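Hi R.,

Here's the chain you asked about this morning:
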Amino acid sequence: MSPAPAGRDGLAAHEAAIARDLSLLNLPAANWPASVSGPDGAPALDVLVVGAGMLGIAAAAALSFKGIRNLQVLDRAPFGREGPWVTFARMETLRSPKHLTGPAAGIPSLTFRAWYEAQHGRAGWEALGKIPNSVWQDYLTWLRRALALPVRNGVGVDRVTPAGDLLAVQISGAEPATIHARHVVFATGRAGGGGANIPAVVDPGLWPDLAAHTSADIDFGRLKGREVAVLGGGASAWDNAATALEAGAARVDMFVRRHALPQVNKGRGSAYPGFFLGWEALGDAERWALMVYLEDAQAPPPHETVHRTIRHDDFGIHFGSPITGARRDGTRVRLATPDGSVRHADFLIVGTGFRVDLASVPELAEVAEGAATWGDRYRPPAHLIRPDLSLYPYLGSAFELLPKDPASPGEPLSRIHLFNYAAHASHRQLSGDVPGVDVGAEKLSVGIGRALFREDIAHHRRLIEDFAEPELESTPFFTLER
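And here is the predicted structure, written out as tokens:
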């Protein structure tokens, strides 16, 4: 038997095979939730997914496969620039191994490998190392097209407010409006839980000409021939240092609080089904203690990223050198260190990650105050107190917000689901990383399906009562009596 063709013809044949696979599995299932109208009389969505990156695609696919098809996915970004992969993720390749199935919804023909081999053949797959960012973005946009997911680009969500048994969602873009949905899923990635983490020692007056966070749209061409300081020693800090050097920066100096880089990525050691499926089954004390251990350990930058950076002679790293102050000094950045020394740079890149604090999420301003955090629900022993972790929302099994008081009614909070990095404490890697995204999407969709069925039970009872397909019509035992 000859091998399947590769390239455009191979992809077309592969897409035909996907259609057959889904048909054999009866996917997506027929829509089953009851029809509900908003206060304006227009049909309400069952689910609105905010974000059309990897998480949003995985969530929408899992929901539609379960017959929850009255949904819409919105993304503020233009087509092809959803998520971080070709915007602020400045590593050259994904950090995850290429064999992981990612957002394939458990369908072999939807995996990255199947898509890649359809175009490049088995030999091309074998020759591939880690997945280049742009190739992963191409795969995600193809996956959304192959599944015919209802995505609208250039439309942002500005505010979510309670509206009786629904949520009113203010959107902006080409057609500013308010739409209504029964559930809203925030699939908004790393920054979706509170935005960029900017240490208090960095003067906001440095923006926009003398400083930027690693998640910003940095014009690296402007840094050619200039001296750049990088605050932080995590992966994104290294990625941005390398990008600046490759763009021709005269010098890049990295300032790291630690006296040495972490050596082992404990997170990779926990990327297996036991962690994915069992984390939520642990008690709060067990989850908190293990979460503190993993957060304190931190993760080293990938070795590829380190080598990419240190091959440049004009790179320097300063361990045990936290920046105690960064402010404007004429046209330059003045950096103070604990030993009293002062350094200057032409530009500062802040590589200190993201924070989680729902009070800083403008879309949730109307509901954040009533939502439970880990600080509300669990009091750790003194040696395990971590103020930053206490701000993470305390979520239910479907990633839904919960009230501060467990005895309070769940709605409308339970209609809002945080399928983003804010769920990290409650669900670990299920809503942010490639290894666990399918497990997370499954939990999310099952939970929303249960909630919709429970809410619509009167409707479904009527359907059962009205069901009258005669099974025995062709037999002598058929009767018209019911």
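One quick note: Residues 7-194+356-459 form a domain with the FAD/NAD(P)-binding domain fold (CATH 3.50.50.60).

Cheers,
M.
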